[in-house]
Write a structure and sequence with these properties.
There is one protein chain. The chain is mostly helical and 254 residues long. Helix content is 83%, strand content 0%. It is built from 9 helices and no strands. The chain has helices spanning 2-11, 13-35, 39-72, 78-81, 87-123, 128-141, 145-180, 187-206, 219-250. Helix 5 runs antiparallel to helix 7 (145-180). It starts with a helix and ends with a helix.
Length: 254
């Protein structure tokens, strides 16, 4: 599977390099604006970096899904799905390569955000007042900054798990479209409709997942709170992978 993961990463290298170049250019623009103490350009650069944070994960999603869809709907699929490698390994490699790409960009963005916050405080000391105001508000409301950061951590973990599950469900929708509706027109539209339907079903069932802890006061509370959701989404991911692999083995016509 390691070779398959490397192969998938090489296929996405052009898109990865372009996206990374955009992030580096925006980071350079931000650093230049801060060092020259240009508040207007700093604000613009900050907004652009925040937008890039969202767009980058959308791009990672596109990288992971588009090639899979193209393979199933073109003759190039012979090169992948007719090899002795199992369908489970092929789909697993695609999912893991997408996850690795997502983690890579997450590490870069977290590093830049941490660096940017330090630079802002050093160059614009007046911004420290914002932090003091947040501290006062948190004290008045009885919510500690520790709890706020733990909730942020919880949100980040939930986002990453959801992101991986969404990709697995997208693969399942594409596979269903390429197998059940392989001779139909507008398979792309059908894939999208199936994807939305699967998401809605998964979200509906997810509403019944219990919340073990209402008040989060420690890191252990964060981890405990995540357990039911992680288990549920892990089941969704496993089911999506197994269903996709079974369909590829039994019904795909290339």
């Amino acid at each position: 599977m390691l070779k398959l993961i490397k192969y998938e990463l090489r296929r996405n290298i052009t898109g990865i390099v372009i996206l990374l170049s955009v992030i580096l250019l925006l980071q350079g623009y931000f650093m230049f604006s801060v060092l020259t103490q240009n508040k207007e350009n700093t604000a613009i650069a900050t907004a652009l970096l925040l937008i890039t944070l969202s767009v980058s994960y959308f791009c990672v999603f596109i990288f992971g899904v588009s090639f899979y869809s193209k393979e199933l709907n073109s003759k190039s699929s012979y090169l992948t799905f007719m090899t002795p490698t199992s369908s489970y390994s092929i789909i697993g490699a695609k999912l893991l390569s997408t996850l690795i790409t997502g983690i890579f960009f997450a590490m870069i963005l977290v590093t830049f955000i941490s660096l940017d916050m330090v630079m802002l405080k050093d160059v614009f000391p007046e911004l420290s007042i914002v932090g003091d105001i947040v501290d006062v508000i948190s004290q008045m409301s009885g919510v500690s900054m520790t709890k706020i950061w733990l909730q942020v951590l919880l949100a980040v973990i939930a986002f990453l798990v959801d992101f991986f599950a969404i990709i697995a469900m997208a693969y399942m929708a594409i596979t269903l479209s390429a197998t059940w509706f392989q001779n139909k027109r507008f398979k792309g539209v059908i894939s999208f409709i199936l994807f939305i339907a699967i998401i809605r079903v998964v979200n509906f069932i997810g509403e019944f997942v219990p919340n073990l802890i209402d008040e989060i006061d420690s890191l252990s509370d964060v981890l405990i709170t995540m357990i039911p959701t992680v288990i549920y989404l892990s089941v969704v991911i496993i089911f999506a992978v197994i269903a996709s692999a079974k369909l590829l083995d039994k019904k795909v016509s290339l």
